[in-house]
User: Fold this.
Amino acid sequence: MSQYYNAKRVSNMYSSSDKAPFRISRSKIDLFMECPRCFYLDRKSGVGRPPGYPFSLNSAVDTLLKKEFDIHRAEKTTHPLMENYGIDAVPLQHKDINKWRDSLRGGIEYLDPNTNLLITGGIDDVWVNPEGELLIVDYKATSKNGEITLDAEWQDSYKRQMEIYQWLFKKNGFKVSPTGYFVYANGKTDREAFDGKLEFDVHIIPYTGDTSWIEPKLKEIKSVLDSENPPEESKDCDYCNYRTAVSSVE
Assistant:
């Protein structure tokens, strides 16, 4: 099977005449927020952005954090890191936890009746507090000097990610706390030598989500999908600018 980028696919494309629910992942909502034109070309025309390189190190950190918190899930105990940050909760035990984590073959889903869009997302973890509220958790990995925060503009997508997960769980009938948590692993670079291992400082950053934007945005997405023409190019989109530059010299 070819490993090359499939520049023009013929499946998973939206058609206004199709009455079946159309699946929209959390990442595609974020694509719409970045550039409605790129979203339209991807979901309706079958021309997606070229993929980036996989972040294998981030995936390894993700996997190891899940294994670590799963130990406490099985034992119904609070992780020491949660205790250090004063978080009164334990990892949630639920029969669907592994399904919710599998964004490709499962995830948590909700069919929005106003748009017939099936919204999906794959979470990293869910904790539960003594009041029975679910705390949505996302793992992140980086390596930087200084304080770990959520203040950078590019981290707005992280916040939207958290809010979509919170919304999905609320729509599935769960009691969800507005406060979620980012478990942030920061690779240390101040060691004398590598010695075949990379050490991390792990931080927990709380974030209070606002899900009020999601349903109006889904209506916008539906309107764009039903349009016969793609939205205008975005001046802030590198992909739009590239395509414009190429077409000007062809």
